[in-house]
Design a protein that fits this description.
The complex is a heterodimer. Chain A contains 10 helices and 7 strands. By secondary structure, chain A is mainly alpha-helical. Chain A folds into 2 domains: 8-113, no CATH class; 151-256, Outer Surface Protein A, domain 3 (Alpha-Beta Complex), CATH 3.90.930. In chain A, the strands form 3 sheets. Chain A has a 3-stranded antiparallel beta sheet. Chain A has a two-stranded parallel ribbon with strand order 1-2. Chain A has a two-stranded antiparallel sheet with strand order 3-7. Chain A starts with 7 loop residues before the first strand and ends with a strand. By secondary structure, chain B is of the alpha/beta class. Chain B has one domain: TIM Barrel, CATH 3.20.20.150. Chain B has 9 helices and 12 strands. An 8-stranded parallel β-barrel of chain B has the order 1-2-3-4-7-8-9-12. A two-stranded antiparallel sheet of chain B has the order 5-6. The radius of gyration of chain B is 19 Å and the shape is globular. Classes of the chains: A mainly alpha, B alpha/beta.
Chain lengths: 258, 306
């Protein structure tokens, strides 16, 4: 936040001018001289607004908050507070704009932590999926055979590709090697919590075939093999099969088509 | 409680109330869904959501939710909101409409609020007489509109626009404020004129009157007396925090102090029966304390309205 004060005594001709000037002061700290106003009161508003901004970002990004030094945190939050034109009515959505702002301003490079863009996206996705509007579930049955029956996916999910294995971030080490990583964040149908799973490229490919073509696991394997123009080794297929059984038990798949 | 009721009796003896009590027949928009003779509500907060279903510690007659915190949510919070709606009458109390702004009204958002109210059978949409958006940016707090003639006309027109969309009166709250800015007319005249020109209802926040009377050095009782109390749809009560010799902040995080209960008693003695809601936004360690505050308000209301 700015510490300097430039006293600008203005003569206002309309309520709009006054409000615009108040808004400017609230976000920038550039002190305006208003008639019949109390500096203590104006400052109280500015502090309250800043606390709302900072609190919403801190709540949405607890890992990001721990990764940054105090100096980095204060710098980027103050910059965002001053310069972002917040468009959401809902305060809980403000952090989404922070993700975009942080990336646009290239803070990850400036802080020499290139994975930070991914970290913000990853943490935001958890908030977004947890809160997302309910999606009508298709009909499904619990009993079936993963190899032969059509798998029905839980529609409340998001599959995202990251440049870093961001789910493995360690707040002490604060370093990650660049490895493309695919993560599905989904809402557990029982607990309603947002959970995530990291998929190999092959499993993500199989997952996409099942979603797009509404087919069984075996059928998806056949399509993948056809596209790769080679037969997958049995042990590879077996590992993927176990993964998809796990996705079934974790409710990323609801069950089987009726 | 006993101590407080003793104070009320003393005040009754020593205070000369010059107003006649307003008609007790004044009807709240949502009086039909209120089940008791006296209705005391509590703001529904996610931090203490389970307490609202336990039946052990808090028993409000109705709840209030900020539509911005619930519209469009699915999953866990949607399930919770459905449970709330099954158990309690709900009022919506908005935060971001910004009736005082010069930025265009967010028509899409107002229509979302209307749909939300229809979905949960909500009759009341209250908002603050303030602005929370300027220069095309949300500020996420409630700033005081400059008390000026041009503001009155502007705000009244916007309230009418909102009322046309939601097809019912908007209920406007007197806000607490920590500084006036470029003030030209008195706060009481500003509020009265807007209520009149917009022909809207009022949410009377008694704690806000107390806070403002301290911050801006006026007589809270005289202020209450001058309000058009027949427009009051419901009442807010809350705690506040004195942060300096000259400033009280309307925190919604502390217990209600006796002076505010006294002002509440005076206010309710002047008007007919309307619902009363306790606001608490944080400091939830003492849940029983919230019920105590609701019980205290109920006793005061019974004394004045039954």
């Amino acid at each position: 936040m700015k510490t300097h004060e430039s006293k600008n005594k203005l003569k206002f001709t309309s309520g709009k001018e006054i409000q615009d000037s108040m808004g400017h002061y609230m976000l920038t700290g550039d002190t305006m001289k208003f008639n019949n106003s109390k500096e203590e009161g104006l400052k109280a508003y500015r502090d309250l607004i800043f606390n709302n901004f900072e609190g919403s970002i801190e709540t949405a990004f607890p890992i990001f908050n721990k990764i940054l030094s105090n100096k980095e945190w204060e710098l980027v939050v103050a910059d965002f507070f001053e310069n972002n034109k917040s468009q959401y009515n809902e305060l809980w959505k403000l952090p989404k704009e922070f993700v975009e702002y942080f990336e646009d301003k290239k803070y990850a490079e400036a802080f020499n932590k290139p994975y930070l863009n991914n970290l913000l996206s990853f943490e935001w996705m958890e908030v977004e999926v947890f809160n997302m509007s309910d999606v009508d579930f298709p009909e499904y049955k619990k009993e079936g055979n993963i190899n032969t029956d059509v798998l029905v996916v839980n529609p409340e999910y998001s599959m995202d590709v990251y440049d870093y294995p961001i789910h493995k971030i360690n707040i002490e080490k604060k370093e990650l090697d660049k490895i493309q990583t695919i993560i599905i964040t989904y809402r557990n149908i029982k607990t309603k919590n947002a959970e995530y799973v990291s998929l190999s490229v092959l499993d993500a490919f199989i997952f996409e075939q099942i979603i797009e073509s509404k087919i069984s696991f075996n059928k998806a394997i056949s399509i993948v093999e056809k596209q790769l123009n080679e037969k997958l080794p049995n042990d590879v297929v077996s590992v993927s099969e176990k993964m998809f059984e796990e996705l079934l038990s974790n409710s990323l798949f609801l069950g089987y088509k009726i | 409680m006993v101590f407080y009721l003793a104070i009320i009796i003393i005040i009754r003896i020593t205070t000369t109330i010059t107003n006649d009590k307003l008609s007790v027949n004044q009807q709240s928009q949502f009086s039909e869904i209120m089940k008791k003779d006296i209705n005391i509500g509590l703001g529904f907060k996610k931090e203490i959501d389970e307490e609202f279903f336990s039946n052990n510690t808090i028993n409000p007659d109705f709840v209030e939710v900020a539509p911005e915190n619930w519209i469009g949510l699915g999953g866990y919070w949607k399930q919770v909101l459905n449970k709330v709606a099954d158990k309690y009458p709900i009022i919506t109390h908005g935060l971001s409409l910004s009736v005082g702004s010069y930025d265009d009204l967010d028509i899409r958002f107002i229509k979302q609020v209307k749909s939300f109210m229809n979905e949960y059978d909500i009759d009341i949409y209250s908002e603050h007489l303030s602005f929370a958006k300027t220069n095309n940016a949300h500020l996420y707090d409630l700033l005081p509109i400059p008390f000026r003639e041009d503001s009155i006309k502007h705000v009244s027109e916007r309230i009418k626009q909102v009322q046309d969309i939601i097809n019912k009166p908007l209920v406007i709250e007197n806000v607490s404020y920590y500084t006036s800015v470029e003030q030209e007319i008195l706060e009481i005249d500003f509020i009265k004129e807007i209520l009149h020109q917009a022909d809207c209802k009022m949410l009377l926040d008694v704690n806000n009157v107390y806070v403002n009377s301290f911050n801006h050095n006026y007589d809270a009782y005289d202020f209450i007396k001058k309000l058009p109390l027949d427009r009051v749809e419901y009442i807010h009560m809350a705690g506040h925090k004195k942060v300096s010799d000259n400033l009280i902040i309307d925190t919604h995080g502390e217990s209600i102090i006796d002076e505010v209960y006294k002002l509440f008693d005076y206010t309710t003695s002047l008007m007919g029966n309307v619902p009363v809601l306790l606001e608490r936004d944080f400091n939830f360690d003492d849940i029983k304390g919230l019920q105590y505050e609701m019980d205290t308000m109920r006793e005061i209301c019974k004394n004045n309205w039954i």
